[in-house]
Amino acid sequence: MSRPPFLTLPPCARAYRLATARGEFAVHDARPAGPPRGTVLLVPGFTGSKEDFIAVLAPLAGAGYRAVAVDGRGQYESGGPRDEAAYAQRELALDVRAQAAALGDGVHLVGHSLGGLIGRAAVLHDAAPYRSLTLMSSGRGAVAESQRARTALLLHALTELGMSMAEVWTRMQGMEAEAADPAAPPALREFLHHRWLGTVPEQLIGTGRQLMTEPDRVDELARVPLAKHVLCGAVDYAWPVPQIEGMGKELSAVTTVIQGAGHSPAAECPEATAEAMVRFWETVSGSDRW
């Protein structure tokens, strides 16, 4: 669960609902002072939300990029149906395509963790709308065995035990130090609780199954003629860092390891993460024309 370092939007950003051909999505939209060098679409991961990118909005806007972080279908403030089929990976990938179209196409697509798998699916479906793809803390297939076991426990609670989101949250507070960290500011603890309760359980069920069963699609992605960036923290619990780095080599991607960061570089080391992404976009031919 990513933990944003703060919750107040920077002056360059505003919150609203982005209208697309596939419905409305809650976004944080940061604009540069002058004409944008490019537009960035930031897709969050499992149990996450647009707030996971809040700390990179100002640095990206300051570098001249319009940065739009989104709550996906069923995540936090976007809402979604109580139907697991609505959260199939293809459906979520088509949502990303619609979001890109609403922003004008030609976006630099960034997917964190699960968002990376969804972004990969979007590019494999149709790469034309995107200027580049950044896979942030996202692996080549299913998550590591320890994370599959944790996800299986969550799915068991939501499906077989029929627990509510509130009941699962209470159970998590008793089991996981990360969720119950007493040192976290009260406002952050309240936000994490509110975000959890705002997430549609079927979204967690459907995407949790994806994390546990996602096939290796690196060979497919390598054949897509699109600029690629693989970025991760120096430590990652969801996918082994050497595996992520190896994926970067197979993709002929720019590969960046953010020292001092774990699974959520955008929240943990936002300045270094933003700088790495900007350096990559500057290598993408013609990126400043968008």
UniProtKB/TrEMBL annotation:
The keyword Hydrolase applies. InterPro entries: AB_hydrolase_1, AB_hydrolase_fold, AB_hydrolase_sf. Keywords: Hydrolase. GO terms for molecular function: hydrolase activity. SUPFAM superfamilies: alpha/beta-Hydrolases. Residues 40-276 form the AB hydrolase-1 domain. PANTHER family: HYDROLASE, PUTATIVE (AFU_ORTHOLOGUE AFUA_2G14860)-RELATED, MONOACYLGLYCEROL LIPASE. This is Alpha/beta hydrolase. It comes from Streptomyces orinoci (Streptoverticillium orinoci).
